[in-house]
Design brief:
Shape: globular
Strand content: 35-45%
Order of helices and strands: EHHHEEEHEHEEHEEEHEEH
Distance between the termini: 14 Å
Length: 262
Amino acid sequence: MKGCFIRAAAATDSAMIVELFVSEFKTTVSDFLVYGCDGAEEYVRAQVTAAPFSRESMFVVAESGDGVVGAAEMKRRPGAIHLNYIAVRPDYRRRHLGRQLLGAAIRCSGESSGEIVLDVFDENASAVTWYTKLGFTVGSRSDLVELVAPQRGASGSGYIAELAQADACHQRFGFSQFSVLTKRGRCPVGRLGEGWFRLCHPDGVTDPEVFAALRLLDPGRRIFGVLRDDQVPHEQVVRTVVRSSRMTADIRETVSRLEVWP
């Protein structure tokens, strides 16, 4: 494309990548995202500068005379790749930059076959339409919901594991993850910024010991999860923030459609 070129991200692009990703979402949603945390720029820089064999995420950017005007992040997963974010500055849209960024992100992942996965908010109708044209289909839907503890009280006391490591991570990046161990097992819990815990597994939603342990750790934080409707009792839902769809496609099919896009 004249005036723009796609390249692998550099450390100096970190701030612009975060700005582009966050600008895609309403403030009410960005508070629940890693890229809404104060240390997100440092996180991107760490990923970009890590040795290739140790990178979970690959970042590509679109650059013009105005600087970085688009970016995409592709995460590697066993047997699949996950398009985590893709964004183009509003005044550079409708120039096929999104298509070029997605193609470059797939190539950067090193995967030429298998499945590509993404999550998209249902309210972003234009994105859903775009992915559908590229061969993606909806497999499941989930709600991002704020939660309260189960009505029954905790019958025992859970305890928290990996907190020291999580604290060090949180200090650097503004987000972290640890585990709460209860009689039911291990429940992974995320922390985002200064305001939220995220329950990362549906089993923790109905475990009162998990909520009791988190209340002891930080009583001021609220709790949310991204869950299917059948995974959480309705009486525990304070509010639904947004609904998302998990979409999947075959990598070869997506690449083929990108190549013939009009």
